[in-house]
Amino acid sequence: MTVLGRETAVGNPVATAHSASSRRVIVYCMNYAPELAGVGRYTGEIADYLASTGNDVTVITTPPHYPGWNVKDGFSNRYSSRNENGIAVIRCPLILRRKMGGIWRLLAPLSFAVSSGPVAFWQILRKRPQVVFCVEPTLFAAPAAQLAARLAGSSTVLHVQDLEVDAAFAVGHLGSRSLLKKIGHAFERFTLGRFSKVITISDRMAEKLREKGVDGRRLDVVRNWVDLSHI
């Protein structure tokens, strides 16, 4: 199995690197280190690993805000850019409020897609990375990255940690609005079909992705890792 042009190993989505050449990689994600819960931690460790193997890594993300939906100390909900552990991290604002229920759970990722879209588009065109590595959630940000990647000749990889459209309706954030559900699934199918590679974390999620039209030849399962010594 090959991801980002490298052979993968169980428990790590980007294993042994070809040390002969450095790649430019743009990681585009809503959650990132120093968030310690959920997707942010995994994505942060993926970026750290890529940088440690000699790749030129740029991350486009939000200020750390999860869990709790409030910006953590030392960060602000505005545009910023700084080097973090040898990685260029560009942070873009998003809509946050204390009670993030209902439609607000949709507006948060949409606002990140709007605020970060021009940044991602410009960074991809300027840096012309070999790989644009997107993380779901949020899929809303993907179209701008896909268009820029196509213009720049970059491969696109989607790492699916959560099927956010299914999840939003399953937990009742958006009620049972049938029209909104149809629009969400149509957008999801359209966007998923335009990635060079799709990775997800379980066989069940891979099955759901195939049902949504993802070609099995472009789909791999790479499970999230755990710290066995800590457990």
Major sheet: 8 strands, mixed
- The CATH superfamily bears the name Glycogen Phosphorylase B
Computed over alpha carbons, the radius of gyration is 17 Å
Distance between the termini: 28 Å
The averaged pLDDT comes out at 87
Structural class: alpha/beta
Order of helices and strands: EEEHEEEHEHEHHEHE
What fraction strand?
15-25%
General form: globular
CATH topology: Rossmann fold
Number of domain units: 1
Low-confidence spans:
5-11, 13-20
CATH architecture: 3-Layer(aba) Sandwich
Helix content: 25-40%
- Please count the beta strands (DSSP E, at least 2 residues each): 10
The total count of helices amounts to 6
Question: Which terms summarize this structure?
Answer:
6 helices; eight-stranded mixed sheet; 231 residues; Rossmann fold; two-stranded antiparallel sheet; alpha/beta
Task: Kindly describe this structure.
The protein is of the alpha/beta class and 231 residues long. The protein has one domain (22-221): 3-Layer(aba) Sandwich (Rossmann fold). Helix content is 35%, strand content 19%. It has six helices and ten strands, in the order βββαβββαβαβααβαβ. It has helices at 39-52, 104-127, 142-152, 164-170, 178-192, 203-211; strands at 2-3, 6-7, 24-28, 56-61, 80-84, 87-91, 131-136, 155-160, 197-200, 219-221. The strands form two sheets. The chain has an eight-stranded mixed β-sheet, with helices on both faces. Strands 1-2 form a two-stranded antiparallel sheet.
What's the topology here?
Elements lengths: L1 E2 L2 E2 L16 E5 L10 H14 L3 E6 L18 E5 L2 E5 L12 H24 L3 E6 L5 H11 L2 E6 L3 H7 L7 H15 L4 E4 L2 H9 L7 E3 L10
Parallel strand pairs: 3-4, 3-7, 4-6, 7-8, 8-9, 9-10
Antiparallel strand pairs: 1-2, 5-6
Helix pairs in contact: 2-3
